[in-house]
Hints:
- The protein has helices at 11-26, 32-42, 89-108, 110-124, 166-178, 214-219, 226-236, 277-284, 289-301, 340-350; strands at residues 64-69, 76-80, 136-143, 146-155, 182-192, 196-204, 208-209, 242-243, 248-255, 258-266, 313-320, 327-332.
- The protein is of the alpha+beta class and 351 residues long.
Amino acid sequence: MPHADPRTRPMAVHVNHMLAHASHALGVRDPRPLLGPLLDRTFSRPDNDIGYADNRLTPGAVPFEPSFSEAEPDTLRFTIEPLGPGASPVARRDEATREMRRLVSPFFGRDALNWFDERSEEWRGFGGLGWMNYGAWFGSAFDEDGLYAAKIYYELAPQQIDALAPGLARLTRMAMTEMPSLSPIFTSIGCKKDAGSQRVTFMHRGPLPLTALGPLMNRMGIGHQLPSLMRVVGVALGGRFELPNGGVLVGLRDTPEGVEMKLEILLASLPDLPARFLDLLRLGLAERPRQVAALERWLTAFGVDDASEQGHFSVLSVRVTPKAQARISLYVRPIEFEMADSLEDSRYAAA
Length: 351
């Protein structure tokens, strides 16, 4: 009996295999018993279905994005665009919201669920549905005890700024006044066992010299961290201190300790990502050996060890707070989930 073409297997088989391997390698709880049904619904099509490439999370690849966080080095973190190709933005938003509510109460408590419901009310409702592009993304993190955090990313329209918590709304307006090139695009709402947080993320229009962040950072009380941010970015990008149009997101969060700023660099937008990017990133962490060791474990867990492989690295983010110098996060697009070959086959067949 002939074997079925392995490429016709659901993409969920590959996603589940990667998560099983990564959770074992990182020594964390396997996410599959908790998130398996969501993953099956999201990745139900065959793994060569070019429809996966049409997404807003990882355009051109399967919408599954693992990330390493220096601040949380011993966790397995990943984000997905729920429900797969063809789902409506409203369906994705509703699916991500259901997953958050399903997980938050049993793992983080009834008070956490009440907090989430209050913070997300504007984005769970019926207003403004016509303008949504993708609806929502869903993120989670696991440690050795199980679910460590859950997060939802809702599209954010300018008219929804008033629905943010008062402190975050003031911070958002202040940022847009100080830097008119910033346009809000989504808000993320995250829950952990002992805390909840909400962030607004902006797209920066036009090229961005890093020094141009100085006035905004001064207004937010974190201007003294600009040299730290520039040092990390400059080392990792081989001396580049200006980022191209369409290549920068800026996230802001209001915390009890002050403002946290998160600079996200979309690496695909850079015309000259250094071939030694990983080595340079390690160099930037050289004074923090625990984080270097954690990064090495994480890279091995996801089979990412060659910066010359196109598509491996999607985002480098750098965050600072009034009391904490620059800390990095690294987001990847696993090479197994790139859709370039399937897209090429589709163009060839149509020719």
